[in-house]
């Protein structure tokens, strides 16, 4: 597929890719969520659980399909990839299944679980570079030195076809789906899913709406689509590192431009809330990038009148990051509040404030009491309470009760 052949993807190509991909990839469950359906106001919201895929993400599909296209001579040269996560594991697993030597370049700061998993799949891992750009450059140099075949994470026809097999499984299981919400990083998953879904829908004589979702801190497709060509953006840090791509691929840009109806963005707070909802409501552990579609639904960025589906694209989240994200998600949902309360520096005030919080059935998890902050009046102290609540309304009740008692209260703010 070249840039000029963006409309020549055929349903038969995706169906042929599915026969190959299913040699190793699971047909993952398509679960439904009544809670998300109620939030969106539709009959059904489906969750395609690629977080339960082998290697923990959809990336195995495209990697395996690409590797099966290699000639015997190319297989003998081995394959190379550069990745900090899911692509690394997908290539390593696929190479092991096909008996191909794989060398994976990963950044020096890669999360330990991802490093260990990639090695367990049999790949030679080279830790190189403080940034991904440096890691990528090192992998390219290795290719030039050895002649090994570089496996791109998204900008390749075989990879796009492999990723698109997700959509065929979704529509086989729930042909009534009218809207698909899919995360976009470099665009491989979105390209394949959007094309396969729309081609299948057209065959069935109907239309289907596709919404792409990006992190607002790395939304390279938004300005690129407006400009009509791929642009490189300045990215900002995001918890959704799996979709943190500064420039769309050439092939994926044209495919998204042609098949994706709209692209929306979500914040890190939105994503953190979505991870907490998925844990509580569906018992699913999902990485930040994998929760982007759910984040868009919860943030009101998705409009749909019928059955809607989104893809939980991966579940490979470091437990330490998960711990932080859960805390952040609870705070973003106003279920974990940091209150700063100005108190007169006299005995009994700490007990009184604690009693007010207890009377409102909120739980105090941390207390910090100081009289040394320079911005405080000399006769006052500051009490910082970290409390758990049942949600925004309950939190407001607690704050109002403290204010009604005469206290000056700030929520998450300094005086």
Question: Could you give the topology of this structure?
Answer:
Layout: H1 11-21, E1 30-32, H2 34-40, E2 45-48, H3 59-68, H4 72-77, E3 79-82, H5 86-98, E4 102-106, H6 112-120, E5 124-127, H7 132-146, E6 149-150, H8 157-173, E7 179-183, H9 188-203, E8 209-215, H10 221-227, H11 250-259, E9 262-266, H12 268-282, H13 292-298, E10 308-311, H14 319-332, E11 336-344, H15 349-359, E12 363-370, E13 380-388, H16 392-404, E14 408-411
Parallel strand pairs: 2-10, 3-4, 3-6, 4-5, 7-8, 7-10, 8-9
Antiparallel strand pairs: 1-2, 11-13, 11-14, 12-13
Could you explain how this protein is built, in words?
The chain has 16 helices and 14 strands. By secondary structure, it is an alpha/beta fold. A six-stranded mixed sheet has the order 1-2-10-7-8-9, sandwiched between helices. Strands 5-4-3-6 form a four-stranded parallel sheet, sandwiched between helices. A four-stranded antiparallel sheet has the order 12-13-11-14. The chain is globular, with a radius of gyration of 24 Å.
The portion of residues assigned to helices is 40-55%
Largest sheet: 6 strands, mixed
Per the principal axes of the C-alpha atoms, what is the gross shape? Answer: globular
CATH class category name of the largest domain: Alpha Beta
> Could you tell me the radius of gyration in angstroms?
24 Å
Helix/strand-derived category reads alpha/beta
Q: Compute the number of structural domains.
A: 3
* Fold-level CATH name of the largest domain: Rossmann fold
**Order of strands across the main sheet:** 1-2-10-7-8-9
Q: Which oligomeric state applies? A: single chain
Report mean pLDDT, rounded to a whole number: 92
Q: Examine the secondary-structure arrangement and name the CATH architecture of the largest domain.
A: 3-Layer(aba) Sandwich
Instruction: Point out poorly predicted stretches.
Output: 1-7
Beta strand %: 15-25%
> From N to C, what is the helix and strand string?
HEHEHHEHEHEHEHEHEHHEHHEHEHEEHE
Q: State the separation between the terminal residues, measured CA to CA.
A: 59 Å
* Total count of strands: 14
Total number of helices: 16
């Amino acid at each position: 597929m070249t840039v000029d052949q963006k409309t020549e993807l055929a349903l038969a190509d995706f169906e042929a890719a599915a026969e190959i991909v299913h040699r190793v990839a699971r047909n993952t469950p398509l679960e439904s969520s009544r809670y998300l359906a109620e939030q969106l106001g539709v009959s059904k919201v489906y969750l395609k659980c690629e977080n339960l895929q082998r290697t923990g993400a959809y990336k195995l599909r495209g990697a395996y399909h690409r590797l099966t296209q290699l000639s015997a001579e190319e297989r003998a040269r081995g394959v190379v990839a550069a990745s900090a996560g899911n692509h690394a594991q997908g290539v390593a697993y696929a190479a092991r299944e096909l008996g191909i030597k794989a060398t994976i370049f990963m950044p020096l700061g890669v999360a330990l679980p991802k490093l260990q998993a990639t090695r367990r799949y049999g790949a030679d891992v080279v830790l190189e570079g403080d940034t991904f750009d440096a890691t990528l450059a090192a992998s390219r140099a290795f290719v030039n030195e050895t002649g090994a075949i570089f496996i791109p994470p998204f900008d390749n026809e075989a990879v796009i076809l492999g990723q698109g097999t997700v959509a065929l499984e979704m529509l086989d299981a729930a042909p009534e789906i009218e809207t698909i919400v899919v995360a976009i990083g470099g665009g491989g998953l979105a390209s394949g899913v959007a094309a396969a879904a729309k081609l299948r829908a057209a065959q069935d004589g109907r239309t289907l709406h596709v919404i792409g979702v990006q992190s607002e801190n790395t939304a390279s497709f938004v300005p690129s689509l407006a400009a009509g060509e791929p642009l490189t953006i300045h990215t900002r840090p995001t918890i959704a590192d799996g979709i943190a791509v500064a420039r769309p691929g050439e092939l994926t840009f044209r495919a998204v431009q042609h098949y994706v109806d709209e692209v929306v963005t979500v914040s890190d707070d939105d994503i953190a809330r979505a991870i907490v909802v998925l844990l509580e409501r569906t018992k699913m552990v999902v990485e930040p990038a994998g929760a982007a579609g759910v984040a868009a639904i919860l943030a009101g960025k998705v409009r749909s009148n019928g059955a809607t589906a989104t893809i939980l694209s991966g579940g490979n989240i470091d437990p330490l990051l998960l711990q932080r994200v859960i805390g952040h998600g609870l705070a973003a949902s106003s279920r974990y509040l940091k209150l700063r309360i100005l108190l007169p520096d006299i005995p009994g005030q700490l007990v009184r404030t604690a009693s007010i919080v207890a009377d409102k059935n909120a739980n105090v998890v941390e207390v910090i009491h100081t009289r040394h902050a320079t911005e405080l009046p000399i006769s006052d102290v500051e009490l910082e309470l970290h409390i758990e609540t049942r949600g925004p309304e309950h939190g407001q009740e607690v704050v109002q009760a403290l204010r009604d008692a005469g206290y000056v209260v700030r929520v998450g703010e300094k005086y």
